[in-house]
């Protein structure tokens, strides 16, 4: 709040609209607010996540897409599909599990390469049909040797800083 005269700020001449302010003072002596009884007790407001778990909509094929994102940097690492069993295994072990549509089987990320994803948090979108795994990625997420599967642009370029972090011929 400024101390400037509002009439001056609005380009209005006080002389054109005289106001008698002698009796317009506000008495705030009785307008104090007592907040001593306004504390909020949150001891009974805890949420039991087991009872409030969101039901995932696995759709007709029984799968949902899951995006793996680096928990520290926010970098998007990969997208894969998750079945109910893969989600259960992820939650049980703390490591990302997915469902391979091409092989028709459950797989643990890093099972053959050692490039695991420790899952820090699982989020679900507003429609309950897409998951977000916030992960701590060991080495690289992409089978091509890159840290992220999203190392290329649609125009065929390579994203800055998207060098290979491992040699796939030595790992697979």
From TrEMBL:
It is an enzyme of class 3 (hydrolase). One of its GO terms (biological process) is L-histidine biosynthetic process. GO terms for cellular component: cytoplasm. This is Phosphoribosyl-AMP cyclohydrolase. It is found in: Cytoplasm. NCBIfam families: PRK00051.1. Residues 78-151 form the Phosphoribosyl-AMP cyclohydrolase domain. It comes from the Archaea. InterPro entries: PRA-CH (IPR026660), PRib_AMP_CycHydrolase_dom (IPR002496), PRib_AMP_CycHydrolase_sf (IPR038019). Belongs to the PRA-CH family. The keyword Transmembrane helix does not apply. Pathway: Amino-acid biosynthesis; L-histidine biosynthesis; L-histidine from 5-phospho-alpha-D-ribose 1-diphosphate: step 3/9. Its EC number is 3.5.4.19. Keywords: Amino-acid biosynthesis, Cytoplasm, Histidine biosynthesis, Hydrolase, Magnesium, Metal-binding, Zinc. Residues 28-47 have a biased composition (Acidic residues). Its main location: cytoplasm.
């Amino acid at each position: 709040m400024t101390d400037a005269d509002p009439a001056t700020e609005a380009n209005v001449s006080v002389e054109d609209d005289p106001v008698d302010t002698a009796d317009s003072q506000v008495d705030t002596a009785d307008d104090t607010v007592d907040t001593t009884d306004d504390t909020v007790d949150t001891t009974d407001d805890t949420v039991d996540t087991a009872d409030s778990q969101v039901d995932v909509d696995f759709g007709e094929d029984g799968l949902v897409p899951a995006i793996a994102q680096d928990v520290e940097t926010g970098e998007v690492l990969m997208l894969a599909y998750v079945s109910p069993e893969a989600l259960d295994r992820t939650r049980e072990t703390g490591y990302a599990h997915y469902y391979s549509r091409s092989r028709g089987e459950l797989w643990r990320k890093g099972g053959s390469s050692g490039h695991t994803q420790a899952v820090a948090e699982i989020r679900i979108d507003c429609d309950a049909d897409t998951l977000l795994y916030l992960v701590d990625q060991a080495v690289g997420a992409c089978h091509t040797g890159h840290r992220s599967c999203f190392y290329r642009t649609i125009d065929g370029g390579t994203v800055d800083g998207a060098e290979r972090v491992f040699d796939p011929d030595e790992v697979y």
